Amino acid sequence: MNLVEKHREKCTQCGLCLEVCPRYDDLSLLDLLYGYLGGTTGIDPTSLLRCLTCGLCAEACPEGLGLKMLISPARQKWVSENGLTDRQTMVDPEAENNIFKKVYEMDEIPVYIDSPGSVVYFPGCAGTYINKNMAQAVVTLLEKAGVDYTVLSGLEYCCGAVSVGAGNPGPIRRHGQQNIEEVRKRGAKILLTSCPGCFKAFKEIYPKMFGEMDFEVLHVSQYLERLLKEGKLTPETTLKHRVFYHDPCHLTRGMGVYREARNVLENIPGTELANKTPEGSACCGFGGGVRVNYPSESISVASDRFRAAEKLGCGIIITNCGGCMQNLVEAGKDEKIKIFDLAEYLSLACGVNIPREDQKLLELVNRAYSLCISGYKEPDLS
Ligand code: SF4
Ligand code: SF4
Questions:
Q1: What is the domain extent for residue 359?
Q2: 10 Å Cβ neighbour count for 306?
Q3: Which of 132, 153, 287, 331 is deepest in the core (most CB within 10 A)?
Q4: What is the pLDDT of residues 56-66, one digit of tens each?
């Protein structure tokens, strides 16, 4: 039974997927997707581009279905029939309009140690070029814990996961095996990623394409929790805050990792975590290409996270993903609630403040978007 037949047969049209979806509100989308994937009708691509790929619909569906399981293959089909647009090639490391190349031309990029090391830290393209603060915090903590680490950073090591999500499997085919070899060459026992997309690539996609990894693959939150448990990191500075943990969709719903970051936060003196489980978590509005296709709507979805944190009486939102961080920082320009990356917050608790230039980051990234994609308009934040 193919995907469309399976969906048609099991779906009861209950609408629970739409109740949680931040982007669609009409079940007629299902018929559009059945028709398009079944080859009987065409589709307006805007019906596909609104999806954040957040996975909330799949989680809510009593039949284990949801909308994303149809939207993702429909996006791939559309790309195979119509080719890639500049909004999709901007994450391809070989493309002329790659966003990270543009940022690199406009800004200084930190240079990290690259030598043999039993822990290989992989900050990903976002951590290398945009969320530099996030990567610097991780490196600070690895130093502090006395870890034998090295860093594989830069566009040449792009994991390719975001391109796959955009319907372009080229970069993962070109770079995947080479990335694995580079990690091995450094003598890695552990590969550590900041970005949930890189984590998925090494943990789930690469093993299917290239065979099992012979090193452990961990997300930063998992490794930081381990360093705390082993007593290699001791947060001594009291940070007296009630905090809200924003679960990144691709880490929590995508990869099932949500407990470790919470355990890290619960180990910080003075810090009180308001949301102890991911129940009721929602998307930041960044993913699935929505940030570039619908900038204002994307930021408006991020603003909802501030209201959720406010309701729980929190003064700080902590997150754990470059895309979430960027969108929350942009949506939070005029908010009282502050945003921190998990590693950045833990660094602070370990006595190291990593300076951050939010305004510069936002100007840089919006300038890069406007250079990479035609007709880009900055989000309306009013
Ligand atoms: S929640 Fe599941 S069963 Fe209900 S309408 Fe959505 S896809 Fe169909
Ligand atoms: S993945 Fe998210 S945005 Fe896309 S259809 Fe499902 S709930 Fe809606």
A1: 233-372
A2: 20
A3: 287
A4: 999 999 999 99
